[in-house]
Amino acid sequence: MSGVYARRLAVAAASAALAATTGLLNAPAAQAAMPTPVSASTARTYLSQLTVAAEGSSDGYSRSKFPHWITQSGTCNTREVVLKRDGTNVQQDSSCAAVSGTWYSEYDGATWTAASDLDIDHMVPLAEAWRSGASSWTTAQRQAFANDLTRPQLIAVTDNVNQAKGDKDPANWLPPSTSYRCTYARAWVHVKHYYDLSVDSAEKSALQGILNGC
Known about the structure:
two-stranded antiparallel sheet; alpha+beta; 214 residues; 15% strand; 40% helix; three-stranded antiparallel β-sheet; 8 helices
């Protein structure tokens, strides 16, 4: 792991811990969308800088090695923060659970009024990250990745669409909504570049094809 990246992860882990202990002062601002990914031109540059390598093994992988969802403020965990952020007119109960609101799923263009119909997708799936370099991280570093509200890594989407994605990379799965694929590729590359994760050749080719059309 590069020294720069190790420092980035240490800062992210420390920030997550601070957010959990200092309450609402560190709660993300409402923006009704995930953080905006880098531009297509920047994403193309970032993609050219990523290490290309055959995907690693899933040996030893477990979702429990990426602890989520962690407390972000008060009684609110990461899932509830994203539901509030990505929805419209979201009302929460005393335990921070979303009890009403409207959510538009960018992946498939569906609109939902029940939080139970939504999953919080990890743009770069946890298992994909494991096979791309996260297997060497500490648990604290993986926790920071799995709960990252600063990068375009978390988004509320239709649950069965997220389940269809699973841990596939863009060579094997893209959002059904073709109009969102440019944003998806920009976000994917943004996250992989920030966390110094590798790409395999098919994944890179798929991303290049999308970004070249953005």
